[in-house]
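Fill-in record for FAD-dependent monooxygenase.
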Amino acid sequence: MDILISGASVAGPALAFWLNRYGHRTTIVERAPSLREGGYSVDFRGEAHLTVLRRMGVLDAIEQAQTNMGAMWNVNVDGKKLVAMPGDLFAGDVEILRGDLARILYDATRLSTEYVFDDSIASIDQDRDGVTVGFERGPTRRFDLVVGADGLHSNVRSLAFGPESAFVSHLGLYCAVFTTDNYLGLDHTGHAYNSPGRMVALYSARENTEAKALFWFGSPVLDYDRRDVAGQRELLARAFEGVGWEAPELLRRMRRADDFYFDSISQVRLDSWSRGRVVLLGDAAACPSPLSGMGTGLAMISAYVLAGELAAEPDHRAAFERYEREVRDYATGCQESAVGVAKFMVPENRFMAWFMNQNYRLLPYLPWKGMMAKSVRKTASAITLKDYEVSRPAGPAPRPRPSGRAS
């Protein structure tokens, strides 16, 4: 089949990898003019995550690019270390920058997948034989299936399922991240400072050659333009006005960052992940939010299952149903692990910040010190993966690079 995938981050290329393996022809359209290589760290943990990476043959490349992060330190306003949070709680079995993972998946698919950057789907018109897709820039094209792997604010979901407000649930937090110099000289570690309702952190990246600045703050739903980066910078600056430690310096550096990212911390919940010949994948279908630490692993597993079911079942409707049946409970578990974390992520007041720090200090001496990490690993492993023993063609021949905006 000719299959169009919207989104070139993680879920989309991972799906294209498997679809190519099974002999389908894949096209990925991405609104950004090139790969998005910024972003924060993402991790994989547990046998289910690692099994998919091994079967793809990308685990070695991911391990070579992993962050090798150690403990994350909570600090006071003067930068004094207070409490260390163990690295395995955040980094799992292997942690990698999201942009580095996107590059690995792109390299694994670029010869067999047509990539169209700087464009987006404008219309989806289904009939019994296929889907006619209109684009914002390129000519109208025809496909057998369309996959929305375009994240929390999925354009495909809006076109085929309905408005975002019907499916996205805000968890009361906003987050911003960007790359800057490792001017604190951090060595495979990070420092985080809590102020009531707000947290700012800096952690080293790429073997300490740079650093990621991370901001979290609590807020009800904000009305802002998601494409107005300048406006988002101003919003963040206002939210952290008066916050100490390195916040003023990082806000100054924010103005110069070319990979600034800002978004709400939200979840996506739908009754069904497919409509006719259109299906959703990853965050577009069931975003658990970054609080779960599961989004990337869930995306990779979902891509493996969706491609496998399409290979095992010639009727796409039955394949979509089987895909959802295999992944739905697992996705729900990943989402539930994030519910309630928000209020602990950013303490609402000074007492809560003090209370949490006392618990962190005592954690190494308590019998349940490994409970949090074990709980996350249990959730990450709560799926049994099929081995899709179907007739596997060698895959499509490398596709010629189309002219224009395709790459």
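KEY FINDING: The domain at 2-349+372-380 is CATH 3.50.50.60 (FAD/NAD(P)-binding domain).
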